[in-house]
Amino acid sequence: MALKNVIIIGAGGHLGPSILSAFRNDPRFNVSVLSRQSSTSTFPEDVKVHRVGDDYPDDEVLSAFKGQDAVVSTIATASAGQQTRLIDLAIKAGVKRFIPSEFGSDTRHPNAMAILPQYFGGKNASVDYLIEKEKDGLTWSSFVTGPFFELAMAGFMGFDIPNRKAIIYNDGEGSWSTTTMPSIGLAVKNSLLEPEKTANRYIYTASFTVKQNDVLKVLEKITNKKFDVDYVDAEAQKVIGIEKVSKGDFSGAMLLIRYINSVNGNGGNYALYHPTDNELLSLPKEDIEEVLTRIVEK
């Protein structure tokens, strides 16, 4: 099953550029982008861009999907519910592989889902729908990557690098799996080079499995500065996060994802119970000090 023609939905977001770059750098693929008319994202001149209405009109999306072998969705979590219709259009267009906008936590972990159903429910529903549609000949792959490491270091996991501050949950010894964005891009691209081995299943990647204390130690070494560290009670942060989310304030979701990753037993360290697919996907071995040095220098 050759998967050569690929279209990316939402290629201008956080993760999309890394996925687009991976495909652009491999001559075995023809990659294009599906972008909403109102989007201000810009793309390289050599990339074909299919502009469609903001509500993804069926006829326009179907036209863009025609001739595509694979659809990679990186649309925002808030729009995950729209993927059901996009999946139907992919089937109608004869697409062979659909990669939903999952990327991140292991949403199938029961504890993670119980903590943040508002955030993970739509993602799970998309995969459930894809499983249902296997009978129509559409295959799928869903990626569990942990937090994108670069975003985790931009405040998501409690580190304020410019101001040399850190918020550490409990004693900082909870371990979590995480993948850099370039490696996620490579993983998505390389999964299409192994279509039979990556079909109809979750794919797990990890650049590192770390603790907040590990990151803090490396950051202090790189910057040659002691960070101002605030140790906080994870359970108290969880309560605050749940209350915020219940009021529609999704800044609470960040606190809850930090909790899932910082407190053992919630699927943050999925390498404990599921082997990664790093080797299958030919992902490079990464050094956390090298990666953090690049982030600090930026």
From TrEMBL:
- Ranges where the NmrA-like domain occurs: 4-242
Keyword vocabulary terms for this entry: NADP, Oxidoreductase
- Keyword rRNA processing among record annotations: no
InterPro entries per UniProt: NAD(P)-bd_dom_sf, NmrA-like, NmrA/Isoflavone_reductase-like, PCBER-like
Keyword set includes NADP: yes
Q: Which domain of life is it from?
A: Eukaryota
Q: Which Pfam families match?
A: NmrA (PF05368)
Q: Which terms in the Gene Ontology molecular function aspect does this entry carry?
A: oxidoreductase activity
Q: What is this protein called?
A: NmrA-like domain-containing protein
